[in-house]
Design a protein that fits this description.
The complex is a heterodimer of chains A (about 120) and B (about 110).
Chain A lengths: L3 E4 L2 E4 L5 E7 L5 E7 L6 E8 L2 E4 L6 E3 L9 E3 L8 E8 L10 E2 L3 E5 L1
Parallel strand pairs in A: 2-11
Antiparallel strand pairs in A: 1-3, 3-8, 4-5, 4-9, 5-6, 7-8, 9-10, 9-11
Chain B lengths: L3 E4 L2 E5 L4 E7 L6 E7 L5 E8 L4 E4 L2 E6 L4 E6 L8 E9 L2 E2 L5 E6 L1
Parallel strand pairs in B: 2-11
Antiparallel strand pairs in B: 1-3, 3-8, 4-5, 4-9, 6-7, 7-8, 9-10, 9-11
The chains are: A mainly beta (about 120), B mainly beta (about 110).
């Protein structure tokens, strides 16, 4: 089945540690996105990539890093510089990043808790 | 800056009722608008995508309408079922940026 796979589903981290969240898609989509969701707030864009080896900062990129070495993969690293990393993280993809045809499909999410 | 408001924030209705969820946005120059469903602890599931040139889109018991000029979209759910209980989010697309509303939390009472 085609889709977006995020792992791990749950992750616990001690303060000061970096963690990497995985996002893999087999939809052959060009564009991929990372969002953060906090209770009572809308989804906020962290990073996005419209093509391999290229990515742009979203609205809340500080304390996060990404890479896009393969079309199907867009891992997100939450670094120790992120002051409030406990959240639900969602990965999404779109056939292309073209504004006229932007339609998002989401993975099941990863919940990160900092102890 | 685009702002998206969804009203009501929460809604409980008996099974079988028809209902309407509202979404308003401040910048009407959008390319399209997507409606999503989110179950607790899960990712978002795309329900409907309406292009800016369209007035409505239908999928099964769901019908979404779009009035760009007034900055509004509605999601109509016919003959609601307990399985429709979830949070529904709207997301207009403007200049490569998709801004999400905070959602309407829907509870269908059996």
């Amino acid at each position: 089945d085609g889709g977006i796979t995020q792992s791990p589903k749950y992750l616990f981290r001690k303060e000061g540690q970096n963690v990497t969240l995985s996002c893999e898609q087999n939809l052959n989509h060009d564009a991929m996105y990372w969002y953060r969701q906090d209770p009572g707030q809308g989804l906020r864009l962290i990073y996005y990539s419209q093509i391999v080896n290229d990515f742009q900062k979203g609205d809340i990129a500080e304390g996060y890093s990404v890479s896009r070495e393969k079309k199907e993969s867009f891992p997100l690293t939450v670094t120790s510089a992120q002051k409030n990393p406990t959240a639900f993280y969602l990965c999404a993809s779109s056939i292309s990043g073209d504004r006229l045809s932007l339609e998002l499909f989401f993975g099941e999410g990863s919940r990160l808790t900092v102890l | 800056k685009q702002e998206v408001t969804q009203i009501p924030a929460a809604l409980s209705v008996p099974e079988g009722e028809n209902l309407v969820l509202n979404c308003s946005f401040t910048d009407s120059a959008i390319y399209n608008l997507q409606w999503f469903r989110q179950d607790p602890g899960k990712g978002l599931t795309s329900l409907l995508l309406i292009q800016s040139s369209q007035r409505e889109q239908t999928s099964g018991r769901l019908n979404a309408s779009l009035d760009k000029s007034s900055g509004r979209s509605t999601l109509y759910i016919a003959a609601s079922q307990p399985g429709d209980s979830a949070t529904y989010l709207c997301a207009p697309n403007r200049d490569d940026k998709i801004i999400f509303g905070k959602g309407t939390r829907l509870h269908i009472l059996p």
